[in-house]
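Reading a protein record of the kind used here takes little practice once its layout is understood. The reader may check this reading against the record printed directly beneath this paragraph.
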Amino acid sequence: IFFDRSYFMGPTVGNEKTYLLLKEALDRTNKLGLIHITIRKKQHLAIIRSFQEGLILQTLHYPDEIRNIKNMPDLPNNEEHPIHKQELTTAINLIHHLTTPFEPEEYVDEYKEALTDFIEEKIEQQEKNETIYPNPNIINIIETLNASIEQVKQQKGKKKEGINEKKAT
């Protein structure tokens, strides 16, 4: 609950050996480093730990940023709702039978996939010069403006002809 964001850390140029030394020392001692870091003008509490082939920095929430679960209304308790030993044993057995290793690559963000599919479909349709949402009432504004200009020119031409005819008489 204390963890906020994770950032991969890489060495700066010339500090590759120091980076590897810290990573290896954290690995062998099974420890992590607790630090204060400033990100975007805000101080954060964070840890640095070994992660796979490198180091990862994880910002933490300060304790006062985390709500206390005791402040949550209407939490049930054992006195009001006693749990019997057989019920607990059955629930634990069910959990053991349903437990499998966590494989994050088996899970996908379905919303992201649907959005990506929609965007790709939209791009594909635009490439085919098709309209995604056809509207039969679409007006070509250039044609409309040119027609209006021609109409105004014709009306001005008729007025000039009328003026010239009056002068001639």
Residues 3-67 form one domain. The mean pLDDT is 85.
